[in-house]
Amino acid sequence: MSDAPAMTSMNLALEGRAAALLPLTVRDLVLRVDRATVLDGVNLDLGASGCTMIMGANGAGKSLLLKLLHGLMPPTSGQIRWGDHAPSAVTARQALVFQKPVLLRRSVAANIDFALKARGKDMARREALLDHVGLSHKADQPARLLSGGEAQRLALARALATDPEVLFLDEPTASLDPASVLAIERIVSEARGRGVRIIFVTHDIGQARRMADDVVFLHRGRVAEHTAAASFFPEPHSDAARNYLSGTIVV
Amino acid sequence: MGEALGLAVGLVLSGDADLLQIVLLSLRVSLTATAIACLVGLLIGALVAIGRFRGRNAVLILMNALMGLPPVVVGLLVYLHLSRSGPLGFLGLLYTPTAMIIAQAILITPIIAALSRQVLEDLHAEYAEQFRSLCLTRWQTVQALLWDARYSLLTVGLAGFGRAVAEVGAVIIVGGNIDHLTRVMTTAIALETSRGDLALALALGIILLVIALGVNAAVQAVRMTAARQAYV
Q1: CA of A106, closest CA in chain B: separation in Å?
Q2: Which of A92, A141, B108, B121 could bridge B135 with an S-S bond, Cβ 3.0-4.6 Å?
């Protein structure tokens, strides 16, 4: 990985831009899928900056909440507002990195080019983006032959190519080795440092401790608690979060 | 069979001008028809693959049903349109290679559309959320799907070409099997069989098979190379 990220100058313009989209306000959000209520009255307020970790057990509704916030699907009922905007109106100002990176059947470089072209960005940024995620030496290789960690770094570079004001990450480090996890966390932290608002789903408690400014804990489709990270880990308010953090299995 | 094989090899080695003309015309007609059918069929396939609209299931049934279009019926319909008294008779295309290209293109466009729709729909299922996140337009989505499925679509094109080059019913109606003008391998085979020159008919058949095998092998080689790079 490059020790000298080449993104500094190119993304200075991002500083504070996310503030225009925020605060995020979610009210009485309900999502039903095939008659099952996945999200059941979610209320949430997120401020202008930092890294929010969304945590909770499998099936708590974390990934679907991200997709709703990103405007990829409509809720059954309730309201989501990014400042004065509906989610679908600001999707183009955000980016989402999926748990399983969806890479095009093209070279590594062509995957970056695709995002740059789709959003009408300067194509000359490709080299800097690849350098930033440590993939310059693999630019001409087929993207789908990358290792898991490399593939996720490419997905992250492609997301950053769109100059997002808000970056959603849906368990991007699940099943990656520690070195790959730290590489991803470094890139995300740098993006946060440039003013990109981070909303990050994870099961990894250690990762949440390293990255989070605040934690939203979902339990059975509801927000069990939304607490600053500094107090969430030592003293979670909800029983659900306390059990989760202590590793207690509740059936 | 041995005699036919010997004759086929002899015909090819002798560089027979008439044979070469028939083979080249067959390839020109079928490759052009395939190219036209791909232009139209891939676009239809892609739009149906990503589209969600009322009556979509009916469209899918129609597309699949049209894959089985009887060549003679297509030939007859094209004949009726291109004949002197038909609506397109003024173009003077009947009994020309262009008429044969039109008939073959009509015949294989539904094949290209239906098969590509399936390929592209599967790929779109994988890409759809990523594309929505990138806010791609419908046209950008179609372009991306067609490019990323290019190696799978080669096989679809091959299926269309195979149907076109082996087809006889439509081209004999609209082409007329005129020597040095519209005679292609399949119509020549039909003619020689009716004349009783079975060895020559078999020889032409063997050449046709070799061409089909060669095209298939080339496409397979390209696909295997692409698969090694995970581009399929």
Answers
A1: 7
A2: A92
